[in-house]
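From the methods appendix. Each design record in this collection lists the tokenized structure first, followed by the designed amino acid sequence. Records were kept in a plain field format so they could be parsed without special tools. The example shown here is representative of the layout used throughout.

RECORD:
FOLD TOKENS (252 positions):
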């Protein structure tokens, strides 16, 4: 059902907000009930459309942060100063309010247990995720999906955040996740500090000879820098999939 959703004709759906929760000081988790939702794959996104009383519309895209197994749709929205859509979503929208969304969108930046089901567990190519800031959103869906499905595919996440308070989805980050903080660490911090560079990628990601499928998501500069370094380390460029977004240019 979820695979069929990738290719079906997209129409605008009515989504009702069930909850608007703080995820970090700058990010809210919006939880929607979407009655006509036909399922999605981890890594896909949706378009959100707001319409003013005078008919003016504004539209933005957001990665889906919830796994296909969750009946509700979760979006992590960063409140961008001067933004046209995010301030309404994060500050004004309340439970019971409706908006329009369209999706799921995208078949390139996705991974699911079903895709590996026909491959013996000991022959599966590992999955390497590298996130900068809010770029962790689609990876939270992948991690949650892998656990719920009991999938044996090796998955790792290297996650760069500004501070410990900026880390998203903390309840989903297990031993397969390495978090590095770039703007100071709190007392007792046992993770890494500093930006994602060549040395950290060599140390905390699957090596090229493991032939991992690599997904990199975050601000443009972060994504391009990480992708270039991975290829320079020996990863095949065809195995590295990228997802860039606007907003804060510095992920951490």
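DESIGN:
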């Amino acid at each position: 059902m979820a695979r069929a959703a990738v290719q079906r004709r997209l129409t605008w759906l009515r989504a009702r907000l069930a909850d608007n929760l703080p995820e970090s000081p700058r990010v809210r988790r919006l939880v929607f009930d979407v009655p006509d939702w036909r399922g999605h794959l981890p890594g896909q996104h949706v378009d959100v459309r707001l319409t003013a009383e005078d008919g003016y519309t504004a539209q933005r895209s957001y990665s889906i942060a919830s796994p296909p197994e969750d009946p509700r749709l979760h979006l992590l929205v960063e409140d961008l100063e001067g933004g046209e859509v995010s301030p309404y979503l994060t500050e004004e929208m309340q439970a019971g309010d409706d908006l329009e969304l369209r999706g799921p969108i995208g078949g390139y930046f996705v991974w699911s247990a079903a895709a590996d089901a026909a491959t013996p567990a000991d022959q599966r190519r590992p999955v390497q995720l590298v996130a900068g800031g809010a770029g962790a959103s689609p990876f939270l869906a992948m991690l949650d999906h892998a656990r719920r499905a009991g999938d044996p595919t090796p998955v790792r996440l290297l996650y760069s955040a500004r501070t410990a308070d900026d880390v998203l989805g903390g309840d989903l980050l297990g031993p397969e996740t390495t978090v590095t903080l770039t703007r100071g660490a709190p007392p007792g911090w046992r993770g890494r500090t500093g930006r994602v560079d060549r040395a950290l990628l060599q140390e905390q990601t699957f090596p090229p000879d493991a032939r991992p499928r690599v997904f990199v998501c975050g601000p443009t500069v972060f994504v391009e820098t990480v992708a270039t370094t991975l290829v320079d380390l020996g990863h095949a460029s065809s195995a590295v999939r990228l997802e860039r977004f606007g907003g804060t240019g510095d992920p951490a």
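APPENDIX NOTE: The chain has six helices and twelve strands.
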